[in-house]
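Protocol step 6 of 9: fold each sequence in the batch and record its structure tokens directly after the sequence line. For illustration, a two-sequence batch is reproduced in full.

Sequence one:
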Amino acid sequence: MAPLPWRRRPRLDVELAERLRRPQIIGPDGQPRNPRIFPRAPLEGADLHGADLRWADLTRARLRGADLTDADLSHADLSFADLSEADLRGARLDRTRLVDTLLTGADLRGVDLTTTTGLTAGCLKGARSSRDTHWPRGFDPHGEHLSGPVFSHLDRFGQR
């Protein structure tokens, strides 16, 4: 018996994931030569470890549970994207746009978020961070929407 249509999991676009893993070509002016525009991209659970996603337009992309460890998301637009349960350890987020980006349960350990824009505490429920996670100036990661203190998953020596 086939699964009911509303119970089917969205399919990962494997070809799209492979295109995102290709190196970005940046010109001498610092602007991309091959702009990446992938709004609403279906990338749930994609392996984008170490991917070069600089300047990518991933507005409303579905990256739930994606592996983005060590990925370069500098200057990317992730507005309204779903990064729930995504692994962002060691990812580079220089000047990344995170307007209403859902980061519920995301792993942000070791991520520098100081130059990101649009980050709100309400989108960080259950997100994991560490002492190596750097927040934007004036941002309170201990906001009322987080589930307990940011370091609740660490023991007193900073270990998991």
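Sequence two, same batch, same settings:
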Amino acid sequence: MCVPEFRTLLEILSAVLVPVATLFYILGILRGTILPTKATWLVWTVLSTLLTLSMYEAGTLNLQILSTTGADVVVLVLTLRYGKAWAWSTFDVACIVLAGTSIALWQSTGDPLWGVVFNSLAVVLGSFPLFKEVWLNPEVEKPLPWILMMVSSICILVALRQWSIESAAQPLIYLFVPGVVVALTLFPARPQLAKF
């Protein structure tokens, strides 16, 4: 049948786009045109690992999350060296505490479905320090790597063989987060908000 083969190709394309996006991101870091947020990348690396585990337990593991987890580790290592200095605001701490709470809720249920839901929620909450930074300083990120991540997420969403919360939550979140970053980098004219 043609459809399963097409879906398999889309899932592979999704997984391949992640290291391509990561390569552009790494080049931006090394050139100094991207200044990653340490808090966000630390949280994302932990959460992508936990999300991978919860998706494995739920039987919905896909190639995109596997590829992303590996890429997150590489970016985190570079971020610790070249990223924005540690500056934990109350806002950053609140986002991380909320992300940690969602992990604790998953552990309290022991249910893989809730693991995927709570870990996906934690990814969004852990992204808010980045959203804030890009809102205030859109020049710290470039849209190309994030656009490639969006395309990767669209590919994996189309490749889903069965739609369920467990299978769709991660790709939807991985479409949403880069979408916000792209919007903030491409449309930077906005009033400054009070410091969070």
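Proceed to step 7 once all outputs are recorded. Observation for sequence two: The mean pLDDT is 85.
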